[in-house]
């Protein structure tokens, strides 16, 4: 694509931005995005493969990450104005384009943990925790999924909270918790089982090293390997009432957070597609077979154009998602459709990119296989394809089809 852009573009467009969506950002936003791009390319990219292979997290990058001052850009602070959802979404794209694991780390911290406190916390709680989270002095995690509950966690939440005077006693377990091994603050969702209570889902801010709280790193994970997912257990873990999110009183409040982040997963998928497109295109131009670059062969061009088509249509959908979020008109159904379609497209794009690289596509040094595996995680978390399909299906037909039929008894 030509690099010629409109007069408002101060940041070099990416090869995969075929329709020039970058131009929707104003110059100041592009300058912020440029800092993120340089950080991702200069700091994250050189260590991404090694961290992925060894399942280690680059804690030494957190101070430089913090220096970007991009946590909580969507809210207003005393010393900083709020920025558009389109900018924060493009930041997710830039991080995912280099390493979906680091984009997920950032999304858990600022999208799930910080947003939970911002949307569901009291003013005192926001003042207590958010400034340090913005500076990344406190890192957050979000604990909703459980060993026995993924898609049905809203109705089947097993982690319990029982009030005992000025404290709450938590018991249960959580699974797949990103940042869970090292987070300073973990947002824990639990069902109120206090005598006389109504069984409502409540949110708590659990601080690191709370007695009765244990985080164990999950092993054997073959996607987003740099993300430190953990199994969490709570055995009579006591949390003060002051750490209960004061405006989280039902799963509807939990879903307010998820609606925002589900749209963010669509952007992660778009960013990953951008990454595999660039890798496949560059390889096809450099790799020669039968005396010519493989980019000169029709079947290779078909793969590249198909990847670009997936990327461009998904980016268009994602941009509209951000615009709807900016005007507070974004619905659960729109979030579900965006997450579903963009991650389906990513799966196919990553497979095609691996095919362009042939046997070299399975070598970690060529990076495509990392994206190929990471696509599987993006495809599954924040709502599976099947659940998101049913959310949209209910919206367009008015009929809920979530409840399955029990198997017939044998006679």
Automatic annotation (TrEMBL):
Coiled coil (UniProt feature): none
SUPFAM superfamilies tied to this protein: Acyl-CoA dehydrogenase C-terminal domain-like, Acyl-CoA dehydrogenase NM domain-like
Q: Where is the Acyl-CoA oxidase/dehydrogenase middle domain?
A: 141-236
Where does the Acyl-CoA dehydrogenase/oxidase C-terminal domain start and stop, copy by copy? 255-396
Q: Which GO terms describe its molecular function?
A: acyl-CoA dehydrogenase activity; flavin adenine dinucleotide binding
Please give a single GO biological process term from the UniProt record.
fatty acid beta-oxidation
Q: InterPro entries annotated for this entry?
A: ACX4-like (IPR045008), Acyl-CoA_DH_CS (IPR006089), Acyl-CoA_Oxase/DH_mid-dom (IPR006091), Acyl-CoA_Oxase/DH_mid-dom_sf (IPR046373), AcylCo_DH-like_C (IPR036250), AcylCo_DH/oxidase_C (IPR009075), AcylCoA_DH/ox_N (IPR013786), AcylCoA_DH/ox_N_sf (IPR037069)
Needed cofactors, names only, are:
FAD
Acyl-CoA dehydrogenase/oxidase N-terminal domain span: 27-137
UniProt keyword terms in alphabetical order: FAD, Flavoprotein, Oxidoreductase
Q: Which family is it part of? A: Belongs to the acyl-CoA dehydrogenase family.
| Protein's recorded name | Glutaryl-CoA dehydrogenase
Q: Organism source for this protein?
A: Pseudonocardia sediminis
């Amino acid at each position: 694509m030509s690099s010629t852009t409109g007069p408002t573009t101060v940041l070099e467009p990416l090869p995969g931005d075929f329709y020039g969506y970058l131009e929707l950002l104003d110059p100041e936003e592009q300058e912020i995005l440029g800092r993120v791009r340089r950080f991702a390319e200069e700091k994250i990219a050189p260590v991404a493969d090694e961290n992925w292979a060894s399942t280690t997290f680059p804690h030494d990058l957190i101070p430089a990450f913090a220096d970007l001052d991009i946590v909580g850009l969507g809210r207003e602070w005393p010393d900083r104005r709020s920025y558009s959802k389109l900018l924060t979404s493009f930041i997710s794209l830039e991080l995912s384009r280099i390493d979906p694991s680091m984009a997920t780390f950032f999304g858990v911290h600022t999208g799930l943990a910080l947003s939970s406190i911002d949307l569901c916390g009291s003013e005192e709680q926001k003042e207590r925790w958010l400034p340090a989270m913005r500076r990344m002095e406190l890192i957050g995690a979000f604990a909703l999924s459980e060993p026995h509950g993924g898609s049905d966690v809203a109705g089947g939440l097993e982690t319990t909270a029982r009030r005992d005077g000025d404290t709450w006693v938590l018991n249960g377990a959580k699974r797949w918790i990103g940042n869970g091994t090292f987070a300073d603050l973990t947002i824990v969702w639990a069902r109120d089982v206090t005598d006389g209570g109504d069984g409502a889902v409540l949110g708590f801010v659990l601080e690191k090293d709370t007695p009765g709280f244990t985080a164990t790193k999950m092993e054997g994970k073959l996607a987003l390997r740099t993300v430190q997912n953990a199994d969490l257990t709570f055995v009579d873990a006591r949390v003060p009432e002051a750490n209960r999110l004061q405006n989280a009183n039902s799963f509807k409040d939990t879903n307010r957070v998820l609606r925002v982040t589900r749209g963010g997963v669509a952007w992660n998928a778009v960013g990953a597609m951008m990454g595999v497109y660039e890798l496949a295109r560059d390889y096809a131009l450099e790799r020669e077979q039968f005396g010519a670059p493989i980019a000169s062969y029709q079947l290779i061009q078909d793969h590249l154009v198909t990847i670009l088509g997936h990327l461009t249509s998904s980016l268009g959908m994602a941009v509209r998602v951000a615009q709807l979020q900016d005007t507070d008109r974004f619905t659960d159904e729109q979030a579900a459709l965006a997450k579903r379609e963009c991650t389906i497209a990513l799966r196919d794009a990553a497979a095609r990119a691996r095919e362009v690289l042939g046997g070299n596509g399975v070598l970690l040094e060529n990076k495509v296989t990392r994206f190929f595996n990471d696509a599987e995680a993006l495809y599954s978390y924040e709502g599976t394809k099947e659940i998101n399909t049913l959310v949209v299906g209910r919206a367009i037909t008015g009929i809920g089809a979530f409840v399955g039929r029990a198997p017939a008894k044998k006679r």
